[in-house]
Amino acid sequence: MRHFGARAAGALGVAVIAMALAAFAPASAFAQADDGGATTAAVPAQTGATYDAAEADAIARSLNCPICEGRNLIDCPLPVCAEMRGEIRTRLAAGEHRSAIIQYFVDYYGERVRNTPPLSGLSGLAWWVPLAALIGGAAVVVRLVNGRTANPTTTPRPADADMTPGAPLSSTAAVAGSPGGAVDYAAAIERLAAARASGDDE
Amino acid sequence: MAELGYACVVAALACVGYAAVASALGAGRHVPALVGSGRRSMLVGAALITAAVAVLEISLYRHDFTMAYVWKTSSLTTPALYLMTALWGGQEGSLLFWSWLMSGYVSLALLRPWRADVGLMPWFTAIGATVLMFFLGLVAFVANPFSRLAVVPADGSGLNALLQHPGMAFHPPMLYLGLTGLTIPYAFAMAALITGRLDAAWLTASRRWLLVAWLCLSIGLGLGGRWAYDVLGWGGYWGWDPVENAALMPWLASTAFLHSIMAEERRGLFRTWNAALVVLTFCLVLIGTFLTRAGLVSSVHAFAQSDIGPYFLGFTSFAIIGSIALLWWRLPLLRSTVRVERLVSREAAFLGNNLLFIGALFAVFWGTTFPIISEWVTGQKLTIGPSYFNRLVLPLLGAAVLLMGIGPVVAWRRGDARAVARVLSRPAFLALVLVVALAVAGIHQPTALAGFAVAAFAGGATVIEIVRGVRSRRRLGEGWGTAFVRLVARQRRRYGGYIVHLGIVFLAIGVTGNVYKADAETALRQGESVTVGDYALRFEGFGQSSEPDRQIDRARFTVLQRGRVVGEVAPSRQLFRNREDQPMTIPSILHRPLADVYALLGGFDDAAGVVTVKVHVNPLVGCVWLGLIVLVLGTLTAAWPDGQEQRVLDAELARLLSGSAPPRPTVA
User: Fold this and answer.
1) Taking CB atoms and an 8 Å cutoff, what residues of chain A touch B337?
2) pLDDT of residue A25
3) Interchain CB contact of B252 with A (< 8 Å)
4) Helix, strand, or coil here: A127?
């Protein structure tokens, strides 16, 4: 039974693989169309010109409906949104780039038509502040771990030293209406909890 | 009736106010009688709030339309279940309900025998009562659910139609149970800071409450997602809506807290950090409630908005400033003498966990509040949509899932990097095989491959850990089943935690499935069909039915998978009698093992026989719900009271109190 762990993991892996295969194999044709970006379609109005359907969807996905609060342009059933999606297709077919098309709508409807803020400018702070906070946090963690390994050998055993109360038991301990043993009670439980905590994990 | 209800609220407010003052004075001046009366007063207050809730429920069932709240949230045709849930269907009632749950938590904590937390209890009562006082004050003076109407209408205007769904019956209560439950650890932490008893007692006292609150919050979030998926009709379960974010933030903070307290209990590490985390969690509950109810952010939860914003802002600021001042004052007592010694150690893994969760939390917070800040500063309105959160938050949570596979196999204090690598080589190999197999099968999206690989790695590592434990018990001669059950039962916290981790793995698989969502929208005549991904929907015809409170128009579709009939869907449009200006389109979902087929009516023309339908194919959504169920089971396992542990503690205690010589306990 030594290698049961490996076998169990193997079985899980096979199950996961089988599941994923069954889920995606039939859909893979669709998936390729999605990421390959090779599909083209004719613009109804301008026969002959073609546009990249995936790109048109991607642009629509990055915009909001200008009327409904917080609704993605691609999902919105309103006529104005259908027109906007048509405009995207027409402009793509005319050879315009994604950024120019988005800028066109931003100029017309204002910043709120984008559903994600741009990376640059003041709105870019939406992206950079959390990233900076994460990097700062990581720096603090690394400093915490590396900066203080001075004399690890003198580190006391946790259950004895570190679980001692930060302050002597406050006299309020005896207040709560219990008999005089309240403090002993609390201390006993603490000792037990500490002993259990240190023996708990392996 | 209404006057009785209001009288209960005012009397409860008085009792709770007295409880806060008496407990604080009693603790400060060492007057046991005052502490005792404060405790009793708190319990009486809870009973009075219960009475007020009962009065409101009875008024709802009796259709007492003289009361504005009853008129606003129910009608003569509202089904019985939704008469009950109307209690939290509007602002005033939901605040009363919230206060009731909070008073229930505080009372239960007071009714439990006071053990290790005995010295903390008076201050715990004072803090709990103060928080409760704020919410009760809102009910009494700002959002009174018992106010009368000048003219008595014949019928009510009815509950918002979107809320008439079984998910809505249980989503708000679970969420509220989670959010109000987080008051308990906060009150214990504040009590510990005030008394200076900053040992592990406050953690021991609040750990199980925290688990219960975390469990309810998780269930509440899950039910909310399920409701959105079943009712709102946009084909997903999580839209990074500001109100969803408001509930997610306390969840992220309390998840971080749940992990880092292990380092404090075990090694006395991160003591300041843990106290700060519990303050953060509680303040996020207040901020989230404030964001939701003050109408600052636009959201699908708009029905909860009102003008109570300034009060919330005031109380939240008070709580933040007060807590930080207390923390600052006790900082010298919180200094830890121990350090994290190495990067390869359990402690460092917990630090990493906290970094990722708090990083994700900050990103959610920033993305939710940035539009408000931007509008204040530049006057420019902008929106931050799902793709922002998906890009910033999901990678962090993905990294947390990866760490979830690594952390549990690293030893405390000084881990052995080589041993860790040896143990983890198997799940890593598994993930690699999976990636290759998926790539061969035609899955080329890097995000999907990364997501599945991380899930396989973490799932594999967790299963191996459990199997390792079972094998060591097997050496005692137990069968596989017995060994597993005993292993989990003997170390509930640890193995319950692993089961939660497995639930998270399923969730990760389900979320990764989103990469391959497909949809289409089209107009169909009878007999015509539309193909989405692997599935086709054939339009069969219209149907109509009528319920007492609404009229339902359906379109029936047969679902085919590669030409074979696998089921049918019937998305509908529902017209509620009292809200005829507000027709609702309700999606219909066919759950297949590996994908959901989700159909929604866009519009239809009965006369011409044309229907417009929007179809989503959502791969692996089932894994999300499965993951949530596993998570709930795991949390229950970890939180379940350990009878044996309790017996040992009680025996030890009885001996100590009687002063007799210590016979060694026979139960190990």
Assistant:
1) 156, 161-162
2) 38
3) no
4) helix
pLDDT tens, residue by residue, B552-573:
889 999 999 988 999 999 999 8
Report how far apart, in Å, the C-alpha atoms of B339 and of each of A40, B73, B235, B501 are.
Answer: 61, 56, 48, 27
Q: How is residue A51 annotated by DSSP?
A: E
Question: What whole-number distance in Å separates Cα of residue B590 and Cα of residue B569?
Answer: 6
Q: CA of A95 to nearest chain B CA: how many angstroms apart?
A: 26
Q: From the centroid of its chain, how far is CA B68?
A: 31
Please, where are the H alpha helices in B475-534? Answer: 480-490, 492-513
Nearest by Cα to B105 from B198, B189, B208: B208
The pair of structure tokens assigned to A192 is: 């037990």
A163 contacts B200? CB cut-off 8 A: yes
Tell me if residue B638 falls in helix, strand or coil: helix
Q: Are strands B529-532 and B518-525 parallel, antiparallel or unpaired?
A: unpaired
Three-state secondary-structure class, residue B506: helix
Q: Which of A17, A24, A120, A140 has the highest number of chain B CBs within 10 A, making it the mutation to test binding with B?
A: A24
Residue A121 in contact with residue B314, Cβ under 8 Å?
A: no
**Cross-strand bridge partners of residue B585:** B573
CB contact under 8 A, A117 and B396: no
Task: Report yes or no: B333 and B192 within 8 Å, Cβ to Cβ.
Answer: no
Query: Residue A35 in contact with residue B444, Cβ under 8 Å?
Result: yes
Report the half-sphere exposure of B205 (CA within 13 A, side-chain side): 33
- Give me chain A's average pLDDT, please: 63
pLDDT tens profile B324-375 = 999 999 998 888 778 888 888 999 999 999 999 999 999 999 998 898 888 8
The DSSP code sequence of B347-375 is HHHHHHHHHHHHHHHHHHHHHHHHHHHHH
Cβ <8 Å between B433 and A13: yes
At B660, the amino acid letter reads S
pLDDT-flagged residues of chain B (< 70): 114-117, 294-306, 578-581, 643-668
Which token pair is B502?
């497995």
- HSE-CB at B614 with a 13 A cutoff on CA atoms is 16
**Helical (H) or strand (E) element with B597:** strand B595-605
Query: What's the pLDDT tens digit per position in B210-235?
Result: 999 999 999 999 999 998 898 888 88
Phi, psi of A180 (to 5 degrees): -60, -15
Number of residue pairs across A and B with CB atoms under 8 Å?
321
Question: First vs last Cα of chain B: how many Å apart?
Answer: 57
Residues of B in contact with A110 (CB under 8 A): 380-381
ipTM of the complex model: 0.83
SS3 content of chain A, % helix, strand, coil (to 5): 65, 5, 30
As a residue count, chain B comes to: 668
* 3-state DSSP assignment of residue B114: coil
Nearest to B570 by CA among B609, B593, B544: B544
Amino acid at A150: A
Q: Specify whether the CB–CB gap between B290 and B305 falls below 8 A.
A: no
HSE value, Cβ hemisphere, 13 Å, CA-based, for B33: 0
Sign of the Cα pseudo-torsion (B163, B166, B169, B174, in order): negative
Q: What is the pLDDT of residue A201?
A: 40
Three-state DSSP class for residue A34: helix
Using CA coordinates, name the residue in chain B closest to A139: B355
Rounded to 10 degrees, what is the CA torsion of A163, A169, A174, A176? -60
